[in-house]
Each structure stands twice: as C-alpha cells, then as structure tokens.
Amino acid sequence: MFTKHNAEFKPKIQASAIALGSNIGDSLTILEAATAELAAIPGIQIQAKSSWYITKAVGPPQPDYLNGCIILQVELDPPKLLEVLLTIEQKFGRVRQERWGPRSLDLDLLLYDDLIIDTPTLQIPHPRMQERAFVLVPLAEIAPDWLEPISGYVIRELVKKVDCSDVHLLKGS
Ligand SMILES: Nc1ncnc2c1ncn2[C@@H]1O[C@H](COP(=O)(O)OP(=O)(O)OP(=O)(O)O)[C@@H](O)[C@H]1O
Ligand SMILES: Nc1nc2c(c(=O)[nH]1)N=C(CO)CN2
C-alpha cells in the first residue's frame, strides 16, 4: 500500500463573513465576548470587525438589537465553522424559541469565500442577508467589495437597495 509520509497537510485559508446580534442581556459585553471566543479557536483569525449598531427588531415585537459583522480567516470547512458558531451561541445562553424572537446571541454564517451551499442544515450565502439592513450596514463597513454570489451584487450595492433608517451607529464602538 502506498503511504505518503512527507506530505504535510495544510488546510486552505478562506475568508468568511459572520453576522452577530443580541437583544437580551448586556448585549455589548456578550458580542465582544463572543468575538473573543471565536478569535481563540485554532484555525480562526479575525481579519476585520465592524462597529456595533443599534437596530430596530425585524420580526415579532421585541427590544432593539445590537448588531455587527466580522470577517474571519478560517481553516475550518463551512459545516465545521457552523458547528463552532452554534456551540458559542449555546455557551452564551441562547435558547431556541420562536422564529425571529429575542436572543442573547445570534451568529449567522453569511459568506464563505465565493461558495454557494444549499443543504437542509446550511445555506451560504445566508438566504436572508440581502434584505437585512442590520446585516448589510455593518458588512458594508468592512467588506464593501465582497461579491454576494447569488445576486451578483457587491455588498456596497446591496446596502443601497435596503432601508437603513432603523440602523444607528453605537457611538464609540
Ligand atoms: N448560513 C447559516 N448561518 C447560520 N445558521 C444557518 C445557516 N444556514 C442554515 N442555518 C441553520 O439555521 C439554524 C439557525 O436558525 P436560527 O434559529 O438561528 O434562525 P434565526 O436566527 O431565528 O433566523 P434567521 O436564520 O433568519 O437569522 C441553524 O441550526 C443552522 O442549521
Ligand atoms: N434588528 C434585528 N432584528 C432581528 C435580528 C437581528 O439580529 N437584528 N435577528 C433576528 C433573528 O435572526 C430577528 N430580527
């Protein structure tokens, strides 16, 4: 049997965009701590971090959210990265209740390089990112030229198509 002894496996490093949101508890502390948790995971580096934005909740009536986005350099494949995000959500007390209901931490995998993935448990690009000002405003701050591969538009073009009046910069963030 042929065995390769000298081949060092070097996983490819890819860029991935993540959306963060919180509207229960001390949201600023939760979002900063979740970002630090991600940065501490082997195979993940934070390349860019947006400001935080106070945003009116989309969905059932509930308190305003704090939202932001980060760009990661990852050596993990998309399912593994999603698993990491779900584990961190649980660590910060996320309890899944009603759809689009309030939560202490929501982490969405928005983009992974230029990949399109459509499986029952993972869709990339995130299927609702194009319509969400609370995602597009922070993402446009750090990745205006990233092409959303389904629409064929870059983020700075997508953000112009949505109403951003309910998204306000958290001063000092
Ligand atoms: N790109 C993605 N990012 C995060 N979760 C995803 C993605 N694609 C599919 N999922 C699935 O969605 C589930 C998360 O659903 P969740 O309860 O967070 O939805 P939501 O935040 O209420 O709504 P929305 O998806 O519209 O933000 C995960 O368990 C995961 O399997
Ligand atoms: N403004 C805002 N609204 C939301 C958000 C969010 O992060 N920000 N997340 C939701 C669940 O995915 C539902 N509604």
From TrEMBL:
Enumerate the InterPro entries for this protein.
Hppk, Hppk_sf
Q: Which GO terms describe its molecular function?
A: 2-amino-4-hydroxy-6-hydroxymethyldihydropteridine diphosphokinase activity
Pfam families in alphabetical order: HPPK (PF01288)
The EC number(s) this enzyme carries: 2.7.6.3
Record Gene3D superfamilies: 7,8-Dihydro-6-hydroxymethylpterin-pyrophosphokinase HPPK (3.30.70.560)
* PANTHER family in the cross-refs: 2-AMINO-4-HYDROXY-6-HYDROXYMETHYLDIHYDROPTERIDINE PYROPHOSPHOKINASE
Protein name as annotated: 2-amino-4-hydroxy-6-hydroxymethyldihydropteridine diphosphokinase
